[in-house]
Amino acid sequence: MIASLMPTYNRADLAFERGDGVWLYTVDGRRFLDFGAGIATSSLGHNHPHLVSAIAEQAGRVMHVSNLYRVPQAERLAARLVEATFADSVFFCNSGAEANEGMVKMMRRAQAATGHEERTRIICFDGAFHGRTLAMLSATGNAKYLSGFGEPAPGFDHVPLGNMNALRDAIGPTTAGIMLEPIQGESGVNASSIRFLQELRAAADEFGLLLGFDEVQCGMGRTGRLFAHEWADVRPDVVSAAKGIGGGFPLGAILATEAVARHLTPGSHGTTFGGNPLACAAGNAVLDVLLAPGFLSTPGHPGHVEIVGRVLFDALEQLVRARPDMFERVRGHETNNGLMIGLKCRHPAAALQDAALQEHLLVVTAGDNVLRIIPPLVVNEDECLEAVARLGRAAERVSPSVVAQSMGAQPEMAVE
What we know:
The chain is of the alpha/beta class and 416 residues long. 36% of the residues lie in helices and 17% in strands.
């Protein structure tokens, strides 16, 4: 008999009743070190006093009014994002998939409005994950995710990540733009090089295409700057954001230049819940922390996320050297910045994830047999070292018999 809650997730037998910083507490009193952060979403950790206060205060005033009226909280959040980024305008929605859908719509609309209605196709990359809607499943291109849902939505072409020759070959008269995650999370923390991002910008300019970055997972401070593409000094045309933008409260955003955003006129796009007062109160509270001096990096001045991220990266590299039988290497941004790190395993990552649970450590599996290490951005150095120590003990738990039993199983990505 089917459960009342649809069985779309393989859930661990854990239920958390409260949190404090990077720690989560189960209903039976066990304490877990959270280095999954709700899949890179709980950017300020759990029970952050400023975020909690902002949400509670706004909830006590007004939560939702619809976009038939002005929303001062959304206006303020948009203005702050514009001031801090490449963007000239922002559209708020509810999730990463919705933000990516909107990004594709913006690209197509901008091309049509400038005399190129034939330009509708978007070039995406192998290993991508752009969301679970029908169109974003097609943009993702993963056959497993598409199975059983009929014909893929048209308009998406896929090329190997990092291959400029393949990208140039895929550009045609109906190509509207390029959509890329600067760091692919779901397929195993695969980071594009700074040079590749710069070459994408050059190719887009050469062929009159729009360049869009999906920063749903790698954005909002995760790499040590507000957005990952900033490390490459590249100015995109449009960027999607979600996950950490609301610190755990549902919120998504599409940031765009005026040349793109001005074509989304009244009636061309919309949302019921997106940008409501409560969501944007959460978003503003998160920005208060992220944009505080010293939290994120500026040129020549490493911030908290970068500094702590380097400690975590170095400690994980030491673990790899100590246990080469269990771990192959550490993955991350080419500058080793930030708190989006992959640990490539020699044995099934799922077995190591289960062993980490026994050490009261939460991590997230990804494709290519990788464990994602994505703690809240407020994590400190001691907590990072403690997490690595628990991973080391988890490796000791994975006995040869356990490894042998699981060798035939394909590692699964976390279901978002």
